[in-house]
């Protein structure tokens, strides 16, 4: 496993963050607008506090970069060799819509690439996790389980493979964000003779669908932030898929000067 990291502890932190989110789910909330006009709720903030405190308590030597944390200058973080990249509530728009498609995302970045990622879906109590050279897994009824070690945790989980199955090409797109370039990508595949099936999902669940083999492609030709994608990328790659820059097909990387991502394509095996 990623050196010195206990996945069981990450599960506990994720569950605690999920409980904070669900404590206010369905309530009438005050919604603030951040500088980029994206929404912010008390659920984002409560989840952030739990994750930030939990990670710093267990791994004080590893810095935390969180969407809801204080801004960290590039001059400081450019020298990081290893850090946590966190989205305390990915899919805030889906949370506000109360459709259940929101997640807690935690990724470990080493050398500018994600080597471990966990995604917890509070509304369905499902925990996805993936680790470099260890595989990707899905744990259902996550809050009911307690594990002696990560090997037992894997035994109780569903092993994921991003292997393409069936004749149709399944493309997962955002529930709340769709660009003209994404439409063009879908049309190009259709014009090549592929039978297209479109699937919609919110938040980092789109990565999870690719990792599960329920979608072949997740094209994102619109802005995202680094914390939106790192955990999902780790899980897709651990399942055998890939996440690459749209412009040059290089592996998607992190801790750039601007935390705004370029366009990317996530794809399963043989897609």
Describe the overall structure.
By secondary structure, the chain is an alpha+beta fold. The protein has two domains: 7-160, Fructose-1,6-Bisphosphatase, Chain A, domain 1 (2-Layer Sandwich); 169-267, D-Maltodextrin-Binding Protein, domain 2 (3-Layer(aba) Sandwich), CATH 3.40.190. Helix content is 30%, strand content 26%. The protein has helices spanning 7-22, 42-58, 74-77, 92-97, 150-155, 180-191, 205-212, 226-238, and strands at 32-33, 39-40, 64-66, 82-90, 103-110, 113-121, 126-131, 135-139, 158-160, 169-174, 196-201, 217-220, 242-245, 264-267. The strands form four sheets. Strands 3-4-5-6-7-8-9 form a seven-stranded mixed sheet, with helices on both faces. β7 and β8 (135-139) form a beta hairpin. The radius of gyration is 18 Å and the shape is globular. The two termini are 28 Å apart. The mean pLDDT is 92.
Fold topology:
Elements (H helix, E strand, L loop, with lengths): L6 H16 L9 E2 L5 E2 L1 H17 L5 E3 L7 H4 L4 E9 L1 H6 L5 E8 L2 E9 L4 E6 L3 E5 L10 H6 L2 E3 L8 E6 L5 H12 L4 E6 L3 H8 L4 E4 L5 H13 L3 E4 L18 E4 L4
Parallel strand pairs: 3-4, 10-11
Antiparallel strand pairs: 1-2, 4-5, 5-6, 6-7, 7-8, 8-9, 12-14, 13-14
Short description:
This protein is of the alpha+beta class and 271 residues long. It has helices at 7-22, 42-58, 74-77, 92-97, 150-155, 180-191, 205-212, 226-238, and strands spanning 32-33, 39-40, 64-66, 82-90, 103-110, 113-121, 126-131, 135-139, 158-160, 169-174, 196-201, 217-220, 242-245, 264-267.
